From TrEMBL:
It comes from Lachancea dasiensis. One of its GO terms (molecular function) is zinc ion binding. One of its GO terms (cellular component) is tRNA-specific adenosine-34 deaminase complex. This is tRNA(adenine(34)) deaminase. It is an enzyme of class 3 (hydrolase).
Length: 270
């Protein structure tokens, strides 16, 4: 604080940098959320992700849950995106992940969190927690684990568009129940669109980490387990996202043409 009672320039600069950073994260999470809606409309669990190349600020890959179509329990959204990046840069080139931020609607499971850590991802931003299998705080904190590749520690930003991520999962479970030959009584209840569980920030961040990411002005959210947003953006989760998906694919192909350079095959000189 300066002598005249006004916030000093460095504090206001820090505060505006935080706001700009968060706006960017929300924008990319909006894309991940639209993709999760697309997954829901194509009979998949609505979990999706976007991988962003931080230096160029471009989307380089995306992923959706593919477990229903592939009948593979490990076909998680993160793995689809990782495969796309490896296709672009070569499977041996893990250095690229140091320049990549993942935006995923649901906290990565333990398996995916471990893969992301081993690849050395720069940052993970997610919407809602994964209460049963979460690897970034809900069950285990793989990103802080010092047993495997301790040199790889990625930054974590939880709770971005959390309510939208929860609503999409609720849509999925209600729909599944409607299709079930014997609807389960518990799941037969009305879709809840207004009540959300408290956000337990402490599972994912320390209080000072929260303050560093979201700013001192929002510390009340941490202390009272509040969501970042009071409302749900229904336009993200109640619209058909087929056109968005087509545009997203084009965006990733453009990245391949403009930025990604596949390693040239080794030639043996005589
Ligand atoms: Zn997973």
């Amino acid at each position: 604080m300066s002598n005249d009672g006004q916030p000093c320039q460095c504090v206001s600069a820090r505060s505006s940098a935080i706001t700009m950073g968060l706006d960017l994260h929300v924008n990319y999470m909006r894309m991940a959320t639209k993709l999760a809606r697309y997954a829901l409309d194509h009979d998949e669990t609505p979990v999706a992700c976007i991988f962003v190349h931080t230096p160029t600020d471009q989307v380089l890959a995306y992923g959706m849950n593919d477990t229903n179509r592939s009948l593979s329990g490990v076909a998680h959204a993160e793995f689809m995106g990782i495969a796309q990046i490896q296709e672009k840069f070569g499977a041996q080139n893990t250095a690229i992940f140091k320049d990549v931020t993942l935006y995923v609607t649901v906290e990565p499971c333990i398996m995916c969190a471990s893969a992301l850590k081993q690849l050395g991802i720069q940052k993970v931003v997610f919407g809602c927690g994964n209460e049963r299998f979460g690897g970034n705080g809900s069950i285990l904190s793989i990103h802080r684990d010092s047993c495997t590749v301790p040199q790889n520690k990625h930054e974590l930003i939880p709770g971005v568009l959390r309510k939208e991520a929860i609503m999409l999962l609720r849509y999925f479970y209600v729909r599944e129940n409607e299709r079930s030959p014997k609807p389960r009584a518990k799941a037969n209840r009305k879709l809840d669109v207004s009540v959300f569980p408290p956000m337990n920030w402490g599972l994912y961040l320390t209080r000072s980490e929260f303050e560093e990411i979201f700013g001192a002005s929002k510390i009340e959210y941490f202390d009272k387990s509040l969501d970042l947003s009071t409302h749900v953006d229904w336009s993200l989760i109640d619209c058909n996202q087929d056109i968005f998906f087509q545009n997203l694919k084009v965006e990733c192909e453009l990245f391949s043409l403009q930025v990604a350079k596949k390693p040239k095959p080794q030639t043996i000189s005589s």
